Amino acid sequence: MAREINVGIVGTRFMGRAHSHAFIDVAHFFDLPLVPVRRAACGRDVAQLEAFAQQFGWQTTETSWERLVARDDIELVDICTSNASHMPIAVAAARAGKHILCEKPIAMNAEEARRMLDAAREAGVSHMVAFNYRRVPALVLARELIEQGKLGRIVHFDAVYYQDWLVDPSFPMVWRHDIREAGSGAHGDMHAHLVDLARFLVGEIAAVSGVQEVFIRERPRADGQGMGTVTADDATYFLARFEGGAIGSFLATRLATGRKNYLRLEIFGSEGSLVFNLERLNELEFYSRRDPGPEQGFRTILATDSAHPYVKAWWPAGHIIGWEHTFVHEVRDLLVAIAHREPVHADFYDGLRCQQVLDAVCVSASEGRWVDVPAGD
Amino acid sequence: MAREINVGIVGTRFMGRAHSHAFIDVAHFFDLPLVPVRRAACGRDVAQLEAFAQQFGWQTTETSWERLVARDDIELVDICTSNASHMPIAVAAARAGKHILCEKPIAMNAEEARRMLDAAREAGVSHMVAFNYRRVPALVLARELIEQGKLGRIVHFDAVYYQDWLVDPSFPMVWRHDIREAGSGAHGDMHAHLVDLARFLVGEIAAVSGVQEVFIRERPRADGQGMGTVTADDATYFLARFEGGAIGSFLATRLATGRKNYLRLEIFGSEGSLVFNLERLNELEFYSRRDPGPEQGFRTILATDSAHPYVKAWWPAGHIIGWEHTFVHEVRDLLVAIAHREPVHADFYDGLRCQQVLDAVCVSASEGRWVDVPAGD
Amino acid sequence: MAREINVGIVGTRFMGRAHSHAFIDVAHFFDLPLVPVRRAACGRDVAQLEAFAQQFGWQTTETSWERLVARDDIELVDICTSNASHMPIAVAAARAGKHILCEKPIAMNAEEARRMLDAAREAGVSHMVAFNYRRVPALVLARELIEQGKLGRIVHFDAVYYQDWLVDPSFPMVWRHDIREAGSGAHGDMHAHLVDLARFLVGEIAAVSGVQEVFIRERPRADGQGMGTVTADDATYFLARFEGGAIGSFLATRLATGRKNYLRLEIFGSEGSLVFNLERLNELEFYSRRDPGPEQGFRTILATDSAHPYVKAWWPAGHIIGWEHTFVHEVRDLLVAIAHREPVHADFYDGLRCQQVLDAVCVSASEGRWVDVPAGD
Amino acid sequence: MAREINVGIVGTRFMGRAHSHAFIDVAHFFDLPLVPVRRAACGRDVAQLEAFAQQFGWQTTETSWERLVARDDIELVDICTSNASHMPIAVAAARAGKHILCEKPIAMNAEEARRMLDAAREAGVSHMVAFNYRRVPALVLARELIEQGKLGRIVHFDAVYYQDWLVDPSFPMVWRHDIREAGSGAHGDMHAHLVDLARFLVGEIAAVSGVQEVFIRERPRADGQGMGTVTADDATYFLARFEGGAIGSFLATRLATGRKNYLRLEIFGSEGSLVFNLERLNELEFYSRRDPGPEQGFRTILATDSAHPYVKAWWPAGHIIGWEHTFVHEVRDLLVAIAHREPVHADFYDGLRCQQVLDAVCVSASEGRWVDVPAGD
Asked: Fewer CB atoms < 10 Å away: N or C end of chain A?
């Protein structure tokens, strides 16, 4: 009989819902050494908190994260709040000896990320940043192909993350528009994913040169009280040099009309290439120069076979999975790591490294020049 | 507070798993008038049954469907067994006053389906056939567009269901290869979906002309005891005339190398057209002759906006759902129908009509001529 | 210095234009043993004939095909007229000792086709039916892959030819709507291509079962004198059994709203599969079960490399060719065959075999049963 | 009867072939006020020159461009040589009163381009830079949609030009690898097209920030004499700010394994978006926020209808054209402009403006900072 682990979640909105689903489904589809118990949910809005807890079966509630973190019965703290509160919650949780799952981007800046990493290491707890796209089966396959040398030497990593939910000027201000709450806009939210995937698939980024823009500078306040000033970027674009020699491009925008959640990677190597698009997340396109000449072409691999990562737990080939499944896989790997006292990626060090790149882009954009990313530990 | 309804499931394999998932997730994502309780699971293999019940949280078990159906605490019987047992279980469940959800195809032939329909109507219970593709958001959108007249008069319905899991001659015999257990092969399993979608989207089929083939006539027995004779069709193709005047084609095969679960619809009308592919089930392609001339083209609608059917319950636009979600939607609609004593489609009448078409194809294939489908009630 | 060959063309409309282009371009891009001279053009409408001859550089004109065929200076007769006149022109040309290129379908029926074949064989002239899609580089590649055994045993050949130019009921009557001029409608025009490609790629068809329909039975006469009655089919669908055991489907319609010239092939074998679409004629999709398991997928081969058939004569890889190039390739092969007194496909025998299948489909459609195709010579 | 114009072409390789084809076909498919005569071809390699002239029907030859330019019978000089000779030939041609068609990029740098523009203006001759992608029907349609306001305010122009012909390290040195002959590598060859299309579709570029890289620094010399040093960039990436406020990205590389001639544009505006890919040049993807909500999607317009630009001259809808047709359209527009003494784009001013952007990118890449593009005239 598997042991149980009590989870406390902080944050009851989009990510709170996605993580709750993962904790619900994971034990039904994966054989776990540690079964999660949805022990406590924490939020500031009592009515919403109660509704959330009931909807997703969280046994108890707290309206203060300090109290949640302090509770003896909580063993894993899952941080799904807005970015500004990641650091204090994570540091407190670490000091209280809790394992930590933290939404991305890890923090408001690299300094905060460093404090989180130090606290987690000092406490000896498991720590994970919720870069859930590392658990898309097609992207795990991409990494395997790269590790097997099927791309040869990688020369380009070109990534876009296109969304369009801000294209309507009447879309109201939310916390994500306020740089004090969000740290940044499209950049922190979307480039965090792209930078993490770049590191996951290709390696460390050495230098960056970027540009940031707010196209719609005023939006109606959600409370109906006139207009608010948007301070978070609608779009950030940057170029990058990788330590391994590759050159890359990173484009993130929330004004890409018609694209909803279009995260596309194009990776070119001396022996082969890969293309991926999150709106078709079950598919990976792969080109190999080692195929016979006249037969070469980008092949669309439907990464739903039992031979593909994570997939055996679900359905037969061709029965596609959805976006939410990536969280189930993530939680599964975290629980295994906690049970076996093993490292798990992406950890807070990955979060820190990602944040250092994001920070360097902001400096670059404000100074109009290339900026080096600090060397890793 | 929502009332509860006790569910008893019969069958613990592929469909048992998919339905279990649906009963688990539905209450977390939809506001229900009737909350399902996973009360009892039934299977013949005790070890597998116990494992299944534990994995998916079924509270009790039975090894005889007769006992399950007879239990006072069961209100809804979910039939996920092989096709040969659908009729006896459903008839017994109806007579015991249970609501019924039954996997497709409804039965071994139209006569059985008729008995099931009669029993359910006589008992006054809710009855549903698990044609889950009626709950793909993109296909519900397809039906809405058709109902709004956006396709005009429909002239063609061309459907394929391509899979390739039987292309390897060493793939062993399973119950699906035995016509006594399965009723038919690709035809019953895959054409049941296509015929149901044809009826859902376009209307009744008047006449059919088909051909059936077993390409690999012997397969290794699963028990290792030599070869078994395949009696169920590897592929069935048929043409159809619809009552409304359209002409259609239906191709189902399990030897379409490279296609895993490729159910494609192409529907052409005098004003517009639709294309759908289950391997990209979040997308619907729509062409409208009413668009300005030089701008006409097939548009790929990513049916993941909150305006699209069922989607609001899940995630923001562009965060795609998977195959399994269709069962959640199906169960949601069934529970609402039971609670409000309303009809729900696809019901046993739909199952019967579908079966009549399937039966007519078999007659046509064996006699080499067109065969009329019986008129509806 | 290459010898010259004098060409006489009959027919000045769509196909006359396409063939003229081919005769113009072929010597600029291919090294030919026999250079075509555009010697004489023939048409009934003098004004149009003169304009055509001037536009495409035909040196002389004739208003009677009998005179053209009789001219001593004409060595190759190119028949681009409506279907009803193919047979008399071809037979006369053969008797006059001319080589013949004839548009498809070869004739009004198999009896006519047989007379043409007999006449050409007796005269010992070169004879070709203009099944130009045999000269799409991607389809020549398809045939090469099949001949190399890369598909294994072929089990399915599923073809559609979708156009939509008749979907508008106000589109006027043309000769293609009149069964006396055209022999048939969508069937002869479009299925001729599909059946020829089936034979080119997979082999002979043994039996067929089809259905034909006129959806729009009256159209405005082109002369403005009221409505005319459409006698040629808007759509014909049929199923087929191949001599080699495969089962296939053939769908041709001119009412497929949104599809302009959408000829799609899907060919499934025990080892691999191919997909082709004429609207993207530079591409061939190929799936191989011999690829490593997790890397299998349909690869899109851009058949524009110098290693691909015919392509070296044109542009570097990725610089796509158009529909018209297929005629250039066809004419090139015909000229080589004439120069070297070698056979060339598709010849009149291929035209006859194709016509026998088309005829069998018409019988099948009118009698509602499967019909065998006559055995080949 | 249309007047004739005598053309002299300089350069007998790739572009010489493509332009020759255009001069051959244009009069057969377009009604011209001025019919081109292939009067003289010029090249340095006599054997190749003679073969070229014979293959494409050039009436006479010259081995010195100075002599060609000086000939009284030449009215239009077509410059298809390597980049370093564009300026001297064009200036001499202008001074000799010849109209000029010049391949792209216009010159080695903006200063040369300015001299060419000045000379052409002073001479009062027609001048055109062969940015042939302005004559892709789908891209002309793109411009029309933008001019009609269907994209609203454009916020992003993201362009890539991916090729892979240099990925093999054994591919030998050609003039394009030598910065003295080519001016630059991928940048000048490929970004010239992207920058011109950006100006054609969106407007002037205000500032740029780029990076350039030679990945394979030594290649075998074509003469077999050891290795040569590559000085021209394999890849150049840059970001841009447009005068109109948009932010853009431009990626050009010859090491994008699997991409042959993959020029992709993604243009996002406040009301709609466009996507284009040169490997499928008959297609334009268009998204409109003005479509009814649940029906919005990227529609694939097959730009082959008679309503689409240039297409009426060719074939019926769905019969796709090839890459070479863009040159036919270009030559057609030039001949019309010369005949009617009207301006024609892209002219040498467009060539200059493009070159100014290319030059600014090179400065930016070498200095690691953003660089402003000079203001236009």
From this structure: N
Share of chain D above pLDDT 70, in %: 100
Q: Per the domain annotation, does C125 fall within a domain?
A: yes
pLDDT at residue C91 is higher than 80: yes
Q: Where are the beta strands (DSSP E) in C135-192?
A: 154-162
pTM of the model: 0.97
Of A84, A107, A132, the residue at which a domain comes to its end is A132
> Which pLDDT band holds residue C1 (cuts at 50, 70, 90)?
low
Same domain, D162 and D115: no
**Cα–Cα distance measured from residue C341 to residue C335, given in angstroms and rounded to the nearest whole number:** 10
Kindly state whether residues C181 and C166 are assigned to the same domain.
yes
**Are residues A359 and A199 in contact, defined by beta-carbon separation less than 8 angstroms?**
no
Among A24, A318, A323, the residue with its CB nearest the CB of B279 is A318
**Is residue D331 one of the residues assigned to a domain?**
no
The answer to whether residue A375 is domain-embedded is no
Contact A158 D289 (CB under 8 A): no
3-state secondary structure of C13: coil
- Please list every residue in chain A whose beta carbon sits closer than 8 Å to the beta carbon of residue B259: 318
Dihedral sign from CA coordinates of D319, D320, D325, D329: positive
Whether the CB-CB separation of A219 and A213 falls below 8 Å is answered with: no
Taking phi first (over 0 means left), then psi (-120 to 50 degrees means alpha), and beta for anything else, what does residue C42 get? beta
Chains that touch D (3 or more CB pairs under 8 A): A, B, C
Q: Is A46 exposed, middle or buried (0-12, 13-18, 19+ CB in 10 A)?
A: exposed
pLDDT digits (tens, 9 = 90+) for C204-251: 999 999 999 999 999 999 888 899 999 999 999 999 999 999 999 999
Q: pLDDT-based confidence at A174, cuts 50/70/90?
A: confident
Number of C-beta neighbours around residue A85 at 10 A: 16
Q: Quick one: C10 and C156 in the same domain?
A: no
Would you say A206 and A372 are in contact if contact means Cβ atoms under 8 Å apart? yes
- Verify that B239 and B363 share a domain, yes or no: yes
Residue B51 structural domain: 3-132
Torsion sign (Cα): A315, A319, A325, A329: positive
- DSSP codes, A31-44: --SEEEEEEEEE-S
Contact B84, B73 (CB under 8 A): no
pLDDT score of A223:
86
C299 vs A296: CB contact, 8 Å cut-off? Answer: yes
In this complex, the chains that touch C, judged by 3 or more CB pairs closer than 8 A, are: A, B, D
- What ipTM does the predicted assembly reach? 0.96
Instruction: Give contacts of B32 with chain A, Cβ < 8 Å.
Output: none
**What is the CATH classification number for the domain harbouring C337?**
3.30.360.10
Query: Within a domain: residue C271?
Result: yes
Show residues of chain C in contact with D302, CB under 8 Å: 260, 279
Q: Is the pLDDT of residue D362 over 70?
A: yes
Pick from A4, A28, A329: which is nearest to B55 by CA?
Answer: A28
Residues 6+ apart with CB under 8 A from D245: A215, D153, D155
Residue B15: strand, helix, or coil: helix
Residue A79: in which H helix or E strand, if any?
strand A76-79
Sheet arrangement for strand C3-10: C60-62, C34-42, C3-10, C76-79, C99-102, C127-129
Q: Judge contact between A273 and A257, C-beta under 8 A.
A: no
Q: Do A257 and D215 touch (CB under 8 A)?
A: no
CB contacts of C287 in chain A (<8 Å) are 299
- CA distance linking residue C75 with residue C79, whole number of Å: 13
Looking at the structure, do residues B107 and B249 belong to the same domain, yes or no?
A: no
Strand B154-162 vs strand B298-302: parallel, antiparallel, or unpaired? unpaired
What is the domain count for chain C? 2
CA dist list (Å): B18 to A342, B78, B220, C145: 32, 12, 28, 40
